[in-house]
Amino acid sequence: MTKGKRLSLSILLAFLLAAFAGSLLAGEEMTIVGVVTEDGLIVDKSGTIYEIGENDNFEAVTEHVDVKIEVKGMVAEDGGGNKIIMVESFKVLEK
């Protein structure tokens, strides 16, 4: 790969990362009640699907597969329109 192509790829990657990070930062604080799936998602009663963002709470939340929980955190959409919640706190409602 030539030096020019590497530079172009680096610039493109930096742009994509900045766009993705910017979309997550533009989120809003929400409280969601839903069920955790095996795929690391939360599905609320209306069927809306939220990806659980990977942070310090990810593993603790995803341990509760098929369990109804309440999560609080920042929700944003990525470039593909997927909703992502960065969980700040959660509690188990039903086991």
Describe the protein's architecture and organization.
It is a single chain. With 95 residues, the protein is an alpha+beta fold. The protein has a single domain, classed as OB fold (Dihydrolipoamide Acetyltransferase, E2P). Helices cover 29% and strands 41% of the residues. It is built from 2 helices and 5 strands. Strands 1-2-3-5-4 form a 5-stranded mixed β-barrel.
- The CATH class label is Mainly Beta
| Helical fraction | 25-40%
Annotated CATH architecture: Beta Barrel
Mean pLDDT: 85
Helix and strand content put the structural class at alpha+beta
SSE pattern: HEEEHEE
Radius of gyration: 16 Å
Compute the number of structural domains: 1
**How many strand segments?**
5
Beta-strand percentage? Answer: 35-45%
Query: Largest sheet at a glance?
Result: 5 strands, mixed, barrel
**Number of H- or I-type helical stretches:** 2
Instruction: Point out poorly predicted stretches.
Output: none
Shape: elongated
User: Widest sheet: strand order?
Assistant: 1-2-3-5-4
Query: What is the distance, rounded to the nearest whole angstrom, between the alpha carbons of the first and last residues?
Result: 54 Å
- CATH fold naming: OB fold (Dihydrolipoamide Acetyltransferase, E2P)
